[in-house]
Amino acid sequence: MALADYSSALVTGASSGIGEATVRSFCSKGITVHAMARRKERLDQLGDDTGCITHQLDVRDTDRLYETLGGLEVDIVVNNAGIGRGFERLYEAKRKDIDATLDTNIDAVFHVLHALLPGMVERKRGHIIQIGSVAGLYPIKSSVYGASKGAIHLLCQNLRLELGGTGVRVTEICPGRVRTEFFDVAIDDATTREQIKDSGISDLQPEDIADAVVYALDAPRHVNVNLVELQPTEQVFGGLRFVPTN
Q1: According to the model, what pLDDT value does residue 179 have?
Q2: What letter would DSSP give residue 204?
Q3: Which residues on adjacent β-strands are paired with residue 78?
Q4: Residue 109 neighbours by CB under 8 Å, 6+ apart
Q5: Are the beta carbons of 115 and 79 closer than 8 angstroms?
Q6: What is the DSSP letter of 136?
Q7: C-alpha separations of 184 from 42, 72, 143, 172 in Å
Q8: Could you confirm whether 66 is annotated as catalytic?
């Protein structure tokens, strides 16, 4: 079941970055796209540009989420909405930031799937794309964000077991640094934010991730692309570090 066999998709976090690039890519290929995001002005502009169907809401609003998704029939779900509030160390993070990140990056993903998977299973057709992160595969100095993406990694592994025999495929896309608004939203301190953003390397672009999504979707029916891990050539994860206690 290649991309040409699918006709409709839902993309969350669609108003900018990876979500926007994915919507534009899908629409250019003739897929009917339901684009969901919080920012109405940007979402309206995306709708004008691409012809996508827009749904303005915060994925943390669970009641509205189910109302919007109820009865919606889509072949592809791209769970892209995510934030990195509480990006500092756990013991320094604000309670509200912990809640915002976990509610967006984990809870909302489960509810989107809970609402849409029954129809996919019944039709024996569908593809779940989870936008994870290398932060869910390797240690980083942000327990809140890293753990939220680690949960998505295990969710994908478990979903494949649950969905065995249904024809519904599950792919996890794990990018490294991508040139998006992530750090603008995640970090309040301007000096710290600019230091992190000014990495001196060539970051991935949102279109690079959208291309990876299309690659996974376009695999033949007998092929499930489990995980795509991609990062800038100049970014490296792993290694060993010794830090003495002062």
Answers
A1: 81
A2: B
A3: 11, 129
A4: 79, 130, 152, 155
A5: no
A6: G
A7: 17, 33, 19, 24
A8: no
Q: Terminal CA-to-CA distance of the chain, rounded, Å?
A: 57
Joined together, the tokens standing for residue 86 give 């509480």
Catalytic residue among 6, 66, 145, 215: 145
For the chain, what percentages of helix, strand and coil (3-state, to nearest 5) are there?
Answer: 45, 15, 40
Q: Is 101 helix (H, G, I), strand (E, B) or coil?
A: helix
Q: Which two tokens stand for residue 38?
A: 């919080």
Check residue 234 and give left, alpha or beta (phi > 0: left; psi -120 to 50: alpha): alpha
- Encoded amino acid at 74, one letter: V
Please state, in angstroms and rounded to a whole number, the distance separating the CA atoms of residues 69 and 55: 10
pLDDT tens track, the chain, 246 positions: 578 889 999 999 999 999 999 999 999 999 999 999 999 999 999 999 999 999 999 999 999 999 999 989 999 999 999 988 877 888 999 999 999 999 999 999 999 999 999 999 999 999 999 999 999 999 988 899 999 999 999 999 999 999 999 999 999 999 998 888 666 666 666 776 676 667 778 898 999 999 999 999 999 999 999 999 999 998 888 877 788 887
Sheet with 126-131: strands ordered across: 53-56, 32-37, 8-12, 76-79, 126-131, 168-175, 227-230
Cα 110 from Cα 103, distance rounded (Å): 10
Taken in order 117, 119, 120, 124, is the CA torsion positive or negative? positive
